[in-house]
Amino acid sequence: MYIEDQIKIIATGLGIKPKQVTSVLLLLEQGATIPFVARYRKELTEELNEEEITAIRDGYEKLTEITKRRESIINTLKETGQLTDDLELQLNNAVTLSELEDIYLPYRPKRKTRASVARDRGLEPLAKLLMRQQYDDVEKTARKYVNFEKEITTVEHALEGARDIIAEWVSENKVARERLRTLYRKRATIKSEVVKTKIEMAQNFSNYFDFEEPLDRSPSHRILAMLRGENEGFLRLQIAPPPNLALQILEKIFVKNESSAAQHVLLAVQDSYKRLLQPALENEFRAEAKERADKEAIRIFVDNVRQLLMAPPLGQKRVLAIDPGFKTGCKIVCLDEQGKLLHNETIYPHPPQNEVRQSIAKIEQLVDAYKIDAIAIGNGTGGRETERLVRHLRFNREVIAVMVNESGASVYSASSVAREEFPDYDVTVRGAVSIGRRLIDPLAELVKIDPKSIGVGQYQHDVNQTQLARSLDDTVMSCVNAVGVEVNTASKQLLAYVSGIGPSLAQNIVSFRNQNGAFDSRQALNKVPRFGPKSFEQAAGFLRVNTSANPLDKTAVHPESYHIVEKMAKSLGVTVEELMKNADLQSKINIEEFVTDQAGIPTLKDIVEELARPGRDPREKFGVFQFSMGINTIKDLKEGMILPGIVTNITAFGAFVDVGVHQDGLVHKSKITDRYVNDPSEFFKVNQRVKVKVENVDLERKRIQLTMIGVEQPKYVF
Fold it and tell me: Between these two residues, 662 and 289, which has the higher pLDDT value?
């Protein structure tokens, strides 16, 4: 398949022009990143978004994989002298891996099989005679092949060997495999049953002890759950259509009449399906179902991670963060506006110590001493009790109290990143710092943690880990570049996700910054070792230098377009800074006057928008949320209660909501609204504020069922 064919396939699949695909592939080949292409090369791609550009990249890589396999097959067939013009044409016309493998199957080098043994014993001529199905006296013919030296001791032995050869022919027949695939796609079911000897240990999979449904309608979470049950040895799975339908298809292809020879062909067909075709197709469709389930689970997980990373930041405020606990106490840290650790200590307001007064006095003292603007409270063990204590305090300044999701904070606190940041502090201090920084800027802090550890996935440990890692990497990079990064305060972990930088160059930037002081402009980045012209091109537009004398260095306007802004300002007789501060002047810009070969209308529109809102943050505005007071544990819940909650995780079957009792409740997709819901992600975002009604509480299994039907939702959702 030529590159032109690949481009046409991708363009048709995405409903875009081949020219757009070509432009994207060329830019990516030249080292451009997806965020850079989407933001700064709109003229070349005709304004394709990041999702479309990613789909082009992934589609091309998949087709390239097929091309490499095709070339490998053709080279192998050439070396073995089996390649004909017709066979090469078939291989070149194949568009899927399964089609390629079907064509190659009869020529593939074979390990020792029943059919190969029969061939070695000289039974292939008998198999060919049987396949003609033109005579009845097969035993007379088969008697000629009895040969004690070749271990063919009876007529039946000879016929069995011939049938083994026929069974292999049937299994390798391209038409038969294609028709059976069609049957599997339309009629296959996935069936699970419990391993009888493991019923007691398999209770987590009780829904699948005796379960069957059409494979094409089985949602990703059920497929992954059944596969996990099988992998753990609790379930047995089978994927197959009704066997009589499969056999009817094969009989129609291979059995020509009712002769004695045809009866042997029929036996071979039945054996071929049971022993060869059915297992092969089951494996193929199992892999296909797993791939489909993985893709959906990864999509859900990636969407959740994106929403978590793009959660509203409190901004540059002084924060007192509390990592709650009972016996070991509550670890307190005080952070400045940049998240720098100023102070840490431990208080013991809860049992068994119950040092309530001392704890209150300490919090009040620290709020005054460090001019604290907000108190961040981790939502783990003791979180609600600590929140209740804090909300009863009265300070001499305005201070907000916020519950912060601490999922993954313990992972961060024990990581090499945390040890490098805080080599002189233990994990409790690091964890509290992470909680406080999450309030100041969730994105900047969460990039330090493996996304799989932040608690918003669905079977994330069961899916293809390579695909998951790449999708997560794409998502984190997309979020970081959408927000932009202040180069003088960013951690190396955050800088590593900026377009064109990566971990090594990020370390170089931080080291240069530490040795030489803050960068005074974007151009100063060119002094960083190994930060060459290509890196500057890819990264500069996403980096901010808020102390720069050039106001454009604080915006998303790329340095390659500074001259355009300068022309705009000059045409109005003002400076760039004056233009950026005056909306009336901006409204007078006629962008068509500034069109060039490099900068068209899309780029010019982006520039004008950026002048109006320089360095704009695409994230929602921060708002304070409070759980219902007095509802602290699952035992406090009663059916019919209406409670405020925060969406913590979205799955294919619903959303999990934190109502402040250390155990998230499930709003099943049938309980979101009174109309049918197929995709819960259409209704929810991670960190969304909702109101829910308690439907059922299972204390033994710690399960909470919630509903939103008939419950008025808050207008402010983030």
Answer: 289
